Amino acid sequence: MVVNQSKGGSFRDLAALMQGTPGPSGGGSGPAALGSGGQRRSSLSVSSGRIIIASNHLPLRVKKASSGEWTFEWDEDALVAQAKDGLPRPQFQEVLYVGSLPVDIDLEEQEGIAIKLKEQYNCCPVYLENSVKEKFYKGFCKQQLWPLFHYILPGSPSSSQRFNVEYWQAYVKANKSFADKIVEESATDTEFVWIHDYHLLVLPSLLRKRFNRIRAGVFLHSPFPSSEIFRTFPKREELLRSLLNADLIGFHTFDYARHFLSCCSRMLGLEHETSRGSITLDYYGRTVGIKIMPTGVNPQRYLDGFTWDEFKWRRGELQAQFQGMTVMAGVDDMDSFKGIDLKLQAFERLLEYHPEWRGKVVLVQVTNPPRSTGHDITELHAFITNLVASINYKFGNPATNYVPVHYLERHVPLHERMAFYSVADCVVVTATRDGMNLVPYEYIVCRQGPDAAAATETEPAVESGPRDSMLVVSEFVGCSPSLSGAIRVNPWSVDSGYNGMYAAICMPLEHRRLRHQKHWRYVSQHTVAYWAQSYITDLMRVTKNHVTMKCYGLGLGLDTFRMVALDANFRKMEESQVAATYSSSNSRVFFLDYDGTLTAGQHTSITLAPLEEVLQVLRALTAEPRNKVVLFSGRPKAELQEWFASVPNLALVAENGCYLRLGEGQTWNTLTPGLQVSAKGRKPGRVNFVTHEVEHPDARA
User: In Å, how far are 289, 440, 491, 547, 658 from 245, measured between CA atoms?
Assistant: First the structure.
């Protein structure tokens, strides 16, 4: 595939990228959108009655039988699969999933499996080349975006977190494959598309370029960093503008949304508006909504699990193993952001400072295999393994078979994870940064359990949960604000973690029950279905006028493309009509904006001085006696005077309207009478305000 791409990895022509061929060097798209194969697709004023959910992985479990045949089944624990239950009815009767498979499928099998998955599961697989897949997921997503969104900047030049052009190109190509599949499956150009997480951040621009009025929403399941972190990323504008080409952008917490809005303000000059609890941005005539809504779990999934035989067996085994013990539990991925090492250090200090708890409290740490590889993960794994051995050696008692830390480094199936939750007196989450983390929610449900029921002829007995619980939660995870009864700790402080653990295991039973009841009310109401319904309802509200919009695409690259949405009554002037009016008129005035308009695309220039092509056009316009050309800019008057000295008869408006010069050789006039420009004449209050803003940059972070 050949695409129009610069040496720096920027894709200069989205239309060409979507078609897989080089595009023209200029121009934009008109009010109609191109459909599959380059044909004009007619716009329908009504929805197709379905929604397309795009995520990196399809909600399927895949196995290969001994016969060599692939078998598939629903992954009922996948968030995007559970979200289906919350979609508003009857607006959406069908859900189509678009995503990749977690396994490699041979080329000759791909078409047959795609047909099978579409017919049986309404899933459309996206097949990526192995080289692209590796650089896209393990390269760009895990080594560059994931650390960036978790506030980690690359240190050494050899760090894998340093920006890699090849990884970025693979990321864009993978997103294009997703866009191609969605376009292929789209029934209308006003289709509802719900895009999930950081793997597909440039997908909104690719879809908006193809379908101007598509109704696209993005939900970011990871944190969003502050502007001071995000602005370091070389492709920051590409990601920001692509997100803004969606109609609704979702975040777990207000902090993440605030950071995104700060990036839009500082890097793009876009200010948000608030009205009746909603936050919106106006982006070239389109209203882009900001949704703050933490996701949840499906409680019934876990409550039903109390009847599973494998759960009952494992729970009974754990109850016998830890009889008489206070059990603290943690369930985390092997990841540098999960704070497993900090948790173990805090637990070590608990046993060191409170010897009376030795032999009475245990920490069960379940660690899932790492999703990425690298030197950091290898080093972390060695540190944790040695620390576990050290704690067990110092505080264990072979005579009583007391082992302080039970460390399980393997994948734990749902029934076993539920068993651990149900016997744990406290769950500890010490992640240093995490998007949401649903472990506390799962734990609350498993400690609640279903209502107890005696055995019948057809149904076995159901045992209720203990209905008391305690949570020690890092203040840096997305679920922390919603768990008001949890003990919040700073995981970076070992003392804070140790004090939180000690307070939790010493909490009176009555208080534990009260906190549990508060958490259960929240978790049982704010489910994953509730989250999905709220999000899609807002997406429908934000896009209700899409079918009446007239849309014009401007800009070609990911860093410049934007869709200008105009009122239905807007009529674009024809070039021939403009030329005829120009020729017949006796006096003409041109008002031109310089910053961001005539300088568009000059991202590598420090001074943003005009290009020679711009000066030639201005000289041609001012050479005509009947033309008057006025150039507006926020730049200083001395700078403008120097830059445009070669353009005669050009009127300049400098410093955003403070000064006017009507032509070459004329003096600058002040357009604000009475303006005091000297330091002596400034008002003290204004000086104090500016000083305060400079000294406190975090006020806008």
Answer: 11, 34, 37, 16, 34
Q: Please, what sign has the CA dihedral across residues 148, 152, 157, 161?
A: negative
Distance of alpha carbon 106 from alpha carbon 601, whole angstroms: 42
Coil, strand, or helix at residue 364? strand
> 41-68 burial string, b = 16+ CB within 10 Å, else e?
bebeeebbebbbbbbbbbbbebeeeeee
Strands of the sheet containing 627-632, edge to edge, are 588-593, 627-632, 650-654, 659-661, 669-670
Closest CA to 253 of 228, 227, 223: 223
Residue 333's contacts (CB-CB under 8 Å, 6 or more residues apart) are 367, 368, 369, 370, 371
Distance in angstroms (rounded) separating the CA atoms of residues 159 and 168: 16
- Give the burial string for 519-530 (b: 16+ CB within 10 Å, else e): bbebbbebbbbb
User: How wide is the angle at C-alpha 415 spanned by C-alphas 414 and 420, nearest 5°?
Assistant: 95
Residue type, 629: V
Tokens linked to 640: 């403008």
Maximum pairwise Cα distance, the chain: 105
3-state secondary structure of 435: coil
Residue 653 one-letter amino acid: V
Q: What is the number of other CB atoms lying within 10 angstroms of the CB of residue 16? A: 18
Tell how strand 471-474 and strand 487-489 pair up: parallel
Tell me the two tokens of residue 208. 């908006």
CA pseudo-torsion sign 104, 108, 111, 116: negative
Query: For the chain, what is the radius of gyration of the CA atoms?
Result: 30
Determine the 3-state secondary structure of 329 from DSSP.
strand
CB atoms within 10 A of CB 485: 17
User: Is 483 within 8 Å of 440 (Cβ atoms)?
Assistant: yes
Calpha distance 16→517 (Å, rounded): 57
* Confidence band for 9, pLDDT divided at 50, 70 and 90: low
Gap between the Cα atoms of 326 and 331, Å rounded: 17
Best CA proximity match to 35, nearest among 164, 144, 200, 191: 191
CA distance 163 to 283: 28
- Tell me, what amino acid is at 672? T
Spatial distance between the Cα atoms of 502 and 494, rounded to a whole number of angstroms: 12
CB-based contact 591:632 (threshold 8 Å): yes
Residue 280 CA neighbour count, 13 Å, CB half:
18
Query: Contact 29/15 with Cβ under 8 angstroms?
Result: yes
- Tokens representing 211 are 């379908």
Q: Which residues pair with 187 in a beta bridge?
A: none
The two structure tokens encoding residue 648: 């005669």
DSSP letter at 241? H
Question: Residues 406-462: pLDDT tens digits?
Answer: 999 999 999 999 999 999 999 999 999 999 999 999 999 999 999 876 656 666 667
CB atoms within 10 A of CB 4: 19
Cα separation, 129 vs 104, in Å, equals: 9
Report percent pLDDT > 70 for the chain. 86
* Distance, CA of 92 to CA of 106 (rounded, Å): 34
d(CA 571, CA 237): 30
Cβ(351)–Cβ(358) under 8 Å?
yes
Handedness of CA 202, 537, 74, 95 (dihedral sign): negative
Cα angle for residues 533, 534, 536 (degrees, 5° grid)? 65
Average pLDDT score over residue span 231-251: 96
What average pLDDT does this structure show over 668-673?
Answer: 78
Sole residue written with tokens 């090849």: 166
What does the pLDDT look like over 565-604, one tens digit per residue? 887 777 777 888 888 989 999 999 999 998 877 876 554 4
DSSP string, 116-154: HHHHHH-EEE----HHHHIIIIIIIIIIIIHHHHTT---
Amino acid at 333: D
